[in-house]
Design goal:
Layout lengths: L9 E3 L2 E3 L6 E5 L7 H13 L4 E5 L3 H13 L4 E4 L4 H9 L4 E4 L7 H14 L3 E6 L5 H7 L4 H16 L6 E6 L3 H12 L7 E2 L7 H17 L5 E2 L7 H14 L8 E4 L10 H11 L8 E5 L5 H4 L5 E6 L2 E6 L2 E7 L4 H19 L5
Parallel strand pairs: 3-4, 3-10, 4-5, 5-6, 6-7, 7-8, 9-10, 11-12, 12-13
Antiparallel strand pairs: 1-2, 13-14, 14-15
Helix pairs in contact: 1-2, 2-3, 3-4, 5-6, 6-7, 7-8, 8-9
Length: 363
Amino acid sequence: MLTRKHTRTLNVGAVGVGGGNPVRVQSMTNVDTRDVLSASAQVAELARAGCEIVRLAVPDEAAAKALAAIRKSSPVPLIADIHFDHRLALMALQAGVDGLRINPGNIGGKAKVDAVVRAAAERGVPIRIGVNSGSVEKALLARFGGPTPEAMVESALGHVALLEKRGFHDIKISLKSSSVLHTIEAYQLLSARVDYPLHIGVTEAGTLLPGAVKSAVGLGVLLHQGIGDTLRVSLTHDPVAEIGVAFDILRALGLRERGPEVISCPTCGRTEIGLIELAEEVQRRLRDVPEVFKVAVMGCVVNGPGEAREADIGIAGGRGVGIVFRKGEVIRKIRGEENLLPEFMKEVEIFLSEMRASSGQRA
């Protein structure tokens, strides 16, 4: 078990963050917030995938006005992402959002900061201060010679001070860079100086594969050091994919699990079936299953069941034949490569029905 740093606890809607709560998985919609139907549909899709908190861009008053309807149908808490205009923050709070993502130093003068903080405090809504390497103030860039980890930390602490002076402490902080090493160092420095919950992520990480790799390295290091209370895997891709990568990172560290874990061998000269396609299709078909169990897809009938003995259920294929096994014990044979996938999925459904029945769930 990893030892996580103990941070303050705050609530984003009904979701507890920090303290002894699990590391929470977040994402952000990429549709126009002004399009209520599309935004609501994407929020619901993210929630089905396991996302616990969803952020929406609020670039103008029309988007702010749409938040009330989106919030009404949302199964998860919503955070409004605000830049520069304090009026949008006030409108978002009036619409019932569960959190704000702002930098109080860039939303206007003292009176405007006062108004936002007062409205957030009255509603019990936390504020996330989000500093990216591209948003560090010019004075700090000059002082530190660029958007260094130290500059990012000082920027965040300056924004924090504006809230603390007003007696506001329901604060979450993020420091994101496209550099994995800068991201790690910035969070390490900040974690040593504050006990506020930290939202971790590598920004502008890239497309699906490179973005997943950069996120896994950066977030994996931080989480292994006990740093991080919420996270987002930022991908240039469908945001639903971010949720799967996030839970894979958390599962690999033993922090959280959701859905089946599909293990599969890397293929070799003994492989006699289309293993890559088979494994990918099994993964795709099980994507929306929330139950936690281990599935093995192996390319060798001789060694597969033994190598994947820890799997709850698995299949190993050979030329024209496959075997289905549970915990390393063969339970049936399948003839014909074309039958491997459909027959195996039938066995998985049987396994799931038994699993749900034993836990009292509806099949």
